[in-house]
């Protein structure tokens, strides 16, 4: 009886370790999507950015409803990136909570935009909350909300 109980406990522990390892992998993978999206924005290129979002995604920015990411990219973000000399994130932090098949992220950062005319600089503190969904083994952003204010 003790042997069966020991085997049962060992199997439970192995299962718990396996679930925890998968949870860590999912957390890292979801966070990598968020970081890769930010790196894409920093490159000032829109190439490949739609790959990080679901087709029916929703984007909210500073009190505005921007529509799907494709709409946001075509009518807001894309034209803006074309006007910037640089766009850099600093003090970037991301926290993630999993509730499979979803991941909930909160990002905090400072972003600095340099405009070409006179090297005018805009510096803001920002926060973004996003919901990602795991589809076909890949994390995709399905909803994101960003806001910012002047950096101190």
Automatic annotation (TrEMBL):
Residue stretches making up the DUF4440 domain: 35-141
Stored Pfam families: DUF4440
Name of this chain's protein: DUF4440 domain-containing protein
Protein keywords: Signal
Gene3D superfamilies: 3.10.450.50
Species this chain originates from: Roseivirga pacifica
Signal peptide: 1-21
Database matches in InterPro entries: DUF4440, NTF2-like_dom_sf
Presence of the UniProt keyword Signal in the record: yes
Superkingdom field: Bacteria
